Amino acid sequence: MKINLCLLYGGKSAEHEVSLQTAKAVSQALNTDKFAVYPIYITKEGKWTKGKELTEPVRDVKELTFINDGEEIVPHALNSKLVLGDNEDRGFDVVFPLLHGPNGEDGTVQGMLELLNIPYVGNGVLSSSAAMDKVIMKNLFAQEGLDQVKFVWFIRTAWESAPETAYEKVESELGYPCFVKPANLGSSVGISKCENRNELEIAFSEAFKYDRKIIIEEGVTAREIEVGVLGNDDPECSVAGEIVPKKGFYDYQSKYVDGNTALVIPADISVQQYTELKDMAERAFKVLDCSGLVRADFFITSDGRTIINEVNTMPGFTPFSMFPLLWKHTGLEYPELIERMIQLALERHQEKQNIIHTF
C-alpha cells in the first residue's frame, strides 16, 4: 500500500518563492511507486488549495499554484479521508511541510499538525519556534555554553521611541562592521552589512519591514562552515561544507538569483575542527529539542575560534542546496534523504503515541 504523502508549501512568508522551488524539487525526487503524492498550496494570503495527485514530476512551479483548477480546503480537513476523495479509506499518512520562514517554519503549522495528530516531517513546535527567533535561539545556545558572536536586539516600538539610543548601543557594544537581521526570518531576507552610522540607520528600517524584532550581530572575519544534522534522539552529522561568497556576504541574491557563491564540499578543515563542529552541532540540536533535520551554521575565525551562528530547521532543500549536497557527499542521495526524513517523522509520531494522556 502506498503512503499518502501531503506536500505542504507556499505560505504567508517572504520566503514563499523559495518554498515553491523546494516543492518542485521534492516532487521530482519522490518515488510514486511508494508514495501517493498530494500537493497543498498555501497562497500568500493564507488560502489553502489542494491539487490533484502528482503522478509525474512537476516541471514548472506554476503547476503547483493551482490558479484555476485547485480545490480550496480548510486546514483541519487534513486528518480526514474526505480531503483525498470518496475513493480513499484514510487521510494523509504523513505531511511534509516544505515551508520556509514565518507561518510555516516557526511552529505554527507544526502546532496544527500536532492537534490533528498527523505525522509530519521535521522539527516540532518548540524547536521550530525557538530556532526561528534568533534571539531566543542564541539565548539557549548561551545557556548550553556554545561560543557565539556578540549581539544585541530591539523591538520596533523601542527603536521608534529612541532610535539614537539604539544606534549608540550597537556602536558601543558591537562596533562596525555589524549585521542587522530580522529576528524571525531566513534565506537572508532583510539582512544588511553595516560599516557606518548611515548604513546602520538604513539597515534598521529595512529589517523592521519584515519583523517586529531585529537582531544585530558583531561582524567577524571568518570562514562560513555548515554541517547537516539528521535524526531524532540520536542525531548524526554530515561532512562539513564551506560557503565562499564572491561578494561581501551570503545574501538572498547570492543564494537564489545569481548563484554568485561557491560551495566547497567537503570543507578543507582539520579532523580536530570537524570534531568540534560536530560536537557543537549535536549539542545545538539537542538543546533546542530538534527532530528530523537541521543545518547548523558556523564561523571559523583566522585564529581558529569556532563560533556557532545559527541552526535552520527547514534549510534550503533543492538538490543544489547545501543541506542535500552535504548528505550526498556523506553517502545519502537526494531521494534517499527524503525517504529517510519521512521515516524519521513516522518513527517520532509512533513514539509519541506511547504517551498517556489520562491520570
Describe this protein's structure.
- The structure is a single chain.
- The protein is 34% helix and 24% strand.
- By secondary structure, the protein is an alpha+beta fold.
- It folds into three domains: 3-120, 3-Layer(aba) Sandwich (Rossmann fold); 150-218, Dna Ligase, domain 1 (2-Layer Sandwich); 222-351, 2-Layer Sandwich (D-amino Acid Aminotransferase, Chain A, domain 1), CATH 3.30.470.20.
- Strands 4-3-2-1-5 form a five-stranded mixed beta sheet, sandwiched between helices.
- Helix 1 links the parallel strand 1 (3-10) and strand 2.
Key attributes of the depicted protein:
3 domains, alpha+beta, D-amino Acid Aminotransferase, Chain A, domain 1, Dna Ligase, domain 1
Overall mean confidence score, pLDDT: 91
Quick one: biggest sheet? 5 strands, mixed
Taken together, the total number of domains comes to 3
Low-pLDDT sequence parts:
249-258
Number of helices: 11
CATH homologous superfamily annotation of the largest domain: ATP-grasp fold, B domain
H/E element string?
EHEEEEHHHEHHEEHEEEHEHEEHH
Task: Give the class from helix and strand content and strand pairing.
Answer: alpha+beta
As laid out across the biggest beta sheet, the strand order is 4-3-2-1-5
CATH class descriptor of the largest domain: Alpha Beta
Number of strands: 14
End-to-end separation in angstroms reads: 37 Å
